[in-house]
Amino acid sequence: MLAAARTASGFSDLLATWARQSSSRETVEMRVPMIPADSRSDSPSAEPLRAARAQRTVLVTGGGGYVGAVLVPRLLERGWAVRVVDLFIYGREALAPVAGDPALALFAGDIRDQDLLGRVLPGCDAVVHLACISNDPSFELDPELGRSINLDAFRPLVEIARSSGVARFVYASSSSVYGVKDAPDVDEGMALEPLTDYSRYKAECERILAEYESPEFTTVTLRPATVCGYSPRQRLDVVVNILTHHAVHDRKVRVFGGEQKRPNIHIDDMVDAYLEVLEQPRERVAGGVFNVGCENNTVSQLARIVCDVVGPDGIAVEVLPADDPRSYHISSAKIERELGFRPRRTVEDAVRDLVAAFAAGKLPDARRDPRYYNIRRMQELELR
Questions:
Q1: Which member of 182, 209, 278, 376 has the lowest number of beta carbons within 10 Å of its beta carbon?
Q2: Could you report the per-residue pLDDT of 273-283, keeping only the tens digit for each?
Q3: Residue 208 domain boundaries
Q4: Is residue 313 domain-resident?
Q5: Is residue 287 part of a domain?
Q6: Model confidence pLDDT, tens digit, residues 229-265
């Protein structure tokens, strides 16, 4: 928890000020011009969608974040016009390669700002809602802020989206909503038993969204495993990425406990899943809830995968007592069975991508730069 002098209200006020200052400028000067489909990428995979999607517009909340920074360029490649609402507290550099695309509009603002949402959402066909205070440690840093963003802002966002004519709403939940299960394969039909406020609010938002499902407003929930791999807005505070960072730079990894299971998914596969549910016919996804994961490994197994990829000189492994008892594993059979979606990458691929990014100098000052670590950045913003 933060020291007493670093109050939750102080951080909330700082973020609100940041959002007002940025949002007042951006929403005046930025619009979303459409772009002819044939001026997009020459990738064959995009071709079938160009004619149908050239005039489709999607709002991505949190589009400047870890997953959003990979999703937004892919949406543009596939012919979508994209609007992004994000506080951009980790910077805008992640979207710099596509910043000049006339089909992209960036709104530096807060999803709790209903006036902003009322200006941005009209004209959107779909929403992909990624924005949140991510994961348990970041959430626990400021629980009041976490609740206001992760839960309190959700119903107004859904209602404004629906009243603005949005036809599809895709929600990024979490596989942590299941809590700890003894079953070998945890599927979407099992009871939700979240252990923390972060996962409880994710589960509650799922219930809220289900209330609004209708023929005019298609709702879809994804429950991702822990995402891993390289992104232009890199995170080095999730398990595979942490282990890879330390293996590369310290030639040593620390494993706390080791027998806890952690489902993972490569970031490119996660983006593919969002595209899949965004572009499938309504009758295949309406009201759907889907787990999205690739591998259910123990932390010790993940450490071994990382060491094997980062080698060959050998990486030391130190095993320490666990302070995090969470252990969960998920089945992604439903999304493959119903939508034909199957991940194409592995944890090894994610590790290789990170190793290549380090070698290419894409992640400078990885030890100290707070942009790679959610908690550090949140703490930095509270400095007086």
A1: 182
A2: 999 999 999 99
A3: 8-227+266-292+325-346
A4: no
A5: yes
A6: 999 999 999 999 999 999 999 999 999 888 888 899 9
- Please report, in angstroms and rounded to a whole number, the separation of the first and last CA atoms in the chain: 18
How confident is the model over 62-109, as pLDDT tens digits?
999 999 999 999 999 999 999 999 999 999 999 999 999 999 999 999
Strand partners for 264: 226, 295
Do 294 and 269 meet the contact criterion of CB atoms below 8 Å apart? yes
DSSP 150: I
User: Based on the structure, what is the number of domains in the chain?
Assistant: 1
Q: Give the pTM.
A: 0.86
d(CA 16, CA 149): 11
Q: Are 231 and 266 in contact (CB under 8 A)?
A: no
| Residue labelled with tokens 């994000």 | 86
Alpha-carbon dihedral sign for residues 291, 294, 296, 298: negative
CATH code of the domain covering residue 15: 3.40.50.720
**Residue 307 forms part of a structural domain:** no
Match 């505070």 to its residue by tokens: 237
> Would 105 be classed as within a structural domain?
yes
> Where on the phi/psi map is residue 79: left (φ > 0), alpha (ψ -120 to 50), or beta?
left
DSSP letter (8 states) at residue 229: S
Lowest mean pLDDT among 17-21, 113-117, 293-297, 309-313: 17-21
CB within 8 Å of 333: residues ≥ 6 apart: 185, 187
What's the CA gap between 13 and 328, in Å, rounded?
36
State yes or no: pLDDT of 13 exceeds 70: no
